[in-house]
Design a protein that fits this description.
18% helix, alpha+beta, 3-stranded mixed sheet
C-alpha cells in the first residue's frame, strides 16, 4: 500500500511538472482531437522575421521561438495550424549588435508587442507586420 501511494505521489509530481512545462513553453499548437484553424503571418516589415512566439492566452509565458532556424522574409508569409481558441503572438528580428566608440557594444531587438487573436475551427486568421499591418 505504501509503495502504491509513493507511486501515485510521484506520478502526480510528474503530471504537474509536465503541465507547467507546457505552460512555460507556450504549449502544443494543436492538441490531439482539437479543432483547428490556420494562422497566416505576412511580413511587409522590410526585414526578415526570425523569431516568432505563439502561446495560448492562458499560458504563463510567450513560449519558445516557433521558427527555430526559419525566417519569414520581407514580402513573404508563413502558415501555422493552431488549435481553436485564444492565442498570443510576438514576432521580431533577433538582436543585431554593433561596436560603439570606446569599444562598447550596442545591441537592438526589433519586436512587435504581444498581439492577441482568436482562431475559429476551420477558419483562417491573417496577421500582417509592416508599415500598414
Amino acid at each position: 500500500m505504501k509503495q502504491r501511494l509513493s507511486f501515485l505521489a510521484a506520478l502526480s509530481v510528474v503530471a504537474v511538472a509536465l503541465t507547467a512545462c507546457a505552460t512555460l513553453t507556450g504549449g502544443e499548437l494543436v492538441r490531439q482531437g482539437e479543432a483547428s484553424g490556420t494562422l497566416i503571418v505576412e511580413n511587409q516589415s522590410g526585414v526578415g522575421i526570425d523569431v516568432l512566439t505563439l502561446s495560448r492566452c492562458n499560458a504563463m509565458s510567450h513560449g519558445l521561438d516557433r521558427l527555430t532556424s526559419q525566417v519569414i522574409y520581407h514580402n513573404s508569409r508563413m502558415s501555422f495550424q493552431l488549435g481553436a481558441g485564444c492565442w498570443d503572438i510576438m514576432v521580431g528580428r533577433s538582436g543585431t549588435c554593433a561596436s560603439q566608440p570606446g569599444g562598447a557594444t550596442s545591441c537592438s531587438w526589433l519586436q512587435s508587442g504581444p498581439q492577441r487573436f482568436t482562431i475559429t475551427p476551420g477558419g483562417t486568421y491573417r496577421i500582417g507586420y509592416g508599415p500598414n499591418g
